[in-house]
Write a structure and sequence with these properties.
By secondary structure, the protein is mainly alpha-helical. The protein has helices at residues 3-13, 18-29, 37-49, 73-84, 95-101, 108-137, 141-146, 148-181; strands at residues 16-17, 53-60, 63-71. It has a three-stranded antiparallel beta sheet with strand order 1-3-2.
């Protein structure tokens, strides 16, 4: 998937500034799609040039004008065309897995430290996702129905983090056993 369709999806929900889109990525899509500030602004420029988003300048006191983006009819058509097609299964490039695969060439302590660091990140992510899930559960039934599909992406993030942490426990058990034999 390209950043293009992630942005079109966000703008189909509501108009937003580039800053708001970056913030939205961090807060709601960050567990399955990441984008850097600069990437978002570059893609917004392309989308604007292609006529897929419309830009409205909003004046601000003591600051440059704020650009608000909204989906155009052409942008909605492109998003719908993309949604009608299929996407290939996700493939991962995970440097940690390469390190573990080559783990026989380093000290177990190095791998354990790396796993500890990654575990902390995944635990923090899981806690943030669970907090988001609690906010969803407090919504009215009508609001929950409206957000049901985004909630399912959240559930995938939660289950993915839980699975990663269970896998990390297996890895640490093996590393501890290797450490004890050394």
């Amino acid at each position: 998937m390209s950043l293009r369709y992630a942005i079109l999806t966000l703008l189909a929900t509501e108009p937003a500034s580039g800053y708001d889109i970056v913030k939205h990525f961090r807060e709601t899509l960050g567990y399955f799609w990441n984008a850097k500030h600069q990437q978002v602004y570059q893609e917004l420029k392309k989308l604007s040039e292609d006529g897929n988003v419309l830009v409205e300048n909003q004046g601000q006191e003591d600051k440059p004008d704020k650009k608000n983006y909204r989906l155009s009819a052409a942008g909605l058509a492109e998003l719908q065309q993309w949604l009608a097609g299929s996407v290939p299964p996700n493939k991962i490039n995970d440097a940690l897995l390469v390190k573990l695969y080559a783990g026989q060439f380093t000290d177990v302590a190095n791998l354990k430290a790396e796993m500890h660091s990654h575990r902390q990140t995944h635990e923090n992510t899981l806690q943030a996702l669970l907090a988001t899930e609690q906010r969803y559960r407090k919504l009215t039934p009508a609001e929950q129905a409206h957000h049901q599909l985004p909630y399912l992406t959240l559930r995938r993030g939660i289950l993915g983090e839980q699975a990663w942490l269970a896998w990390a426990d297996e890895v640490m058990q093996v590393l501890d056993e290797q450490d004890a034999r050394s």
